[in-house]
Amino acid sequence: MSETAMTDGSEVLRHPLLVAGEAVHRATGGELRVSDPSIDLVTDVVAQAGPEELEAALVAADRAAATGEWSSVSATDRGRVLRRVADELRRRAEEFALAEVRTAGHTIADARWEAGAMADVFDYYAGAANKHLGAVVPTPDPGLGLVLRVPVGVCGLIVPWNFPRRIAPWKLAPALACGTPVVLKPASLTPITAVMLGEVLVEAGVPASCVSVLPGPGSSIGESLVTDPRVAKVSFTGDSSTGSHLMAQVAPNVTRISLELGGKSAAIVFADADLEAAVEAIPYSVFANAGQDCCARSRLLVERSVYDDVVAALAARTERLVVGDPTDEATEIGPMISEAQRATSLEYLDIARSEGAEVVCGGETSGLGWYLSPAVVAGADNSMRVAREEIFGPVVTVIPFDDEADAVRIANDSEYGLSGTLWTRDLGRAIRVGTAVRTGVMSVNTNRSVRTELPFGGFKRSGLGRELGLAALDHYTESKTLFLSAD
Ligand code: NDP
Question: Under a CB-based contact definition with an 8 Å cutoff, are residues 426 and 270 in contact?
Answer without folding.
Answer: yes
